[in-house]
Predict the structure.
Amino acid sequence: MDYFLTDKQKMIKNLARRIAEEKIKPKRAELDEKEEFPWELMDILAKSDLFGLIIPTEYGGFGGGCFENCLAVEELGRACIGVATTFAASGLGAYPILFYGTEEQKRKYLPEIASGRKLAAFALTESSAGSDAAGIQTQATSSGDVYILNGTKQWITNGGEAEVYSVIAMTDRTRGARGASAFIVEKGDPGFSFGRKEKKMGIRCSSTRELIFDNCRIPKDRIIGREGMGFIIAMKTFDEARPGIGALSVGLAQGALDEAVRFAKERVQFGKPIISFQAIQHMLADMATLTEAARALVYAVARYIDTRPRDFSKVSAMAKLFPSDVAMKVTTDAVQILGGHGYMRDYPVEKMMRDAKILQIYEGTNQIQRNIIGQALNKEYGKKF
């Protein structure tokens, strides 16, 4: 379909697609096998100025919004969502500074992130606080001109590789969720270290580590916003970022569909390419329809978010929920169409199927997305009736 992109948006999409085809695809199997962080590819993306898509021009970025970011992420995800997640997670880490940082914080950190010289990461999840974001235990204690952080964050994307971390910690536990605050922590800060790199089912080249704070001292000017705003900052960050997960999902589904159609046209059984059989055609038709529906939803929501509406939590959740479920189904069906070939590592669809599962889990499980949508509907219809 023609989504009536501007010339700049077409340029972004075409650039990301070219990098995906020429640079990422040839490396994806090796990166997955070795579980190797894709620094070489991050350098290519940095030199292409893609890290600056969501950063305003006054801080060295492109000045794009949620939609432009989704266009790039989709094309990168079409080749490998491990690489695309690494790229997208830096934007996730930048959002708190972009939306709530002081002018000094923005001028210090955003140009470095926009250029790709430094990766960013976002740290909320803990062993006992994932979906229950208000249950975090990491503590930030005020002491003179510093905050002292103690605690552990778990499953942090870009952990250990990023230089800049947006971290949510409790400053007043008696206030519950309203006692959380957001901070900027830099790699190398005293008392800040990393756990081992996690061994994962999918997105294996993406780095996932614990962040360990042991009397980590950071200057007081590293607080984002003010004390007590941490939960608001986290939820705003997720609302802005979730369509990006939808875009990753669309890219992955499209990549799996591409592989399935290519194989079905080449694989001959009973004297015919298997794409000539109605059973295969119907599977491909459903895969294509679901992928296009997911793309239309992501694009519509991303464009809506860029109009800066007051509240978009419900549609943002939809833009993550539906496409990620689609990605799981489409990649599973792609493996089925390839049959025994699809189960082998010689073909990319088995990796795509493994990768797809995380899309239903990170940045809020799909069950949590349904909660958000359901609660919003309850609130909306409560006003009508």
